[in-house]
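Thanks for the sequence, V.! I ran Putative lectin/glucanase superfamily protein right away. Repeating your input here for the record:
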Amino acid sequence: MNLLTLPKSLSSYNPIPNGCLLYLPLWNPGLSGSTFKSIDPYGHLCTVTGALYGSTGRTFDGADDLINCGSGASLDDIFDTGGTYLAWINPSSDGEGDKGRVIEKANPSFFTTSEATGKVKMSFAQLFSTLYGEWETTATEVTIGTRTFVAVTYNSSSVANNPIMYIDGVVKTVGSGLTEVSTPDGTRTSDAASDLIIGNNVGGTRSYAGIIETTWAYNRILSAGEIEHIRQVTK
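Predicted structure:
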């Protein structure tokens, strides 16, 4: 087993460490093995299935590749009081089943979808007790074969809440670039029993296709300024 424990200090890696629960610069040679720890205060043990390492990140095959980062308590239900997912991606299609997961913990999930004319949409879904919520970019925003920064913020404490997405720094809100395709109902379903997966779902049936360069997960809603700062510093 190739197990590497990396420095826990975020200062030389992560632009904004406050509230960061998971940080995976998958281009980093220290994360090139089949097993590694995340570069954050928690050091989540991540196990790779497929997902070939390269200097620009991990390449996922759109069939069965994934990185499993477990279900540490710090990763559970991070959207309860507001959370954020961010990633640098370079998709080659919209992935397995037209819903290639960038990052998922059962549900919530952040994924590519609806490929058309060389582009894909980004979608975010959250499971609730009666009916799940799902929102996607109104247009196909991410160009296949192009490195793109994507982010989503959300608070699952109320069905009235909607996520905000960011595509290469451009804000997308419901009615202005973001469409609600399923309106949530009930109470949010806990993800505490499920592992956090990069590039797939836990069942291995929604593999992302293309490169994932870097991913972040926060237990707070990052401001537009913070998200843009991360994009600028890491682009």
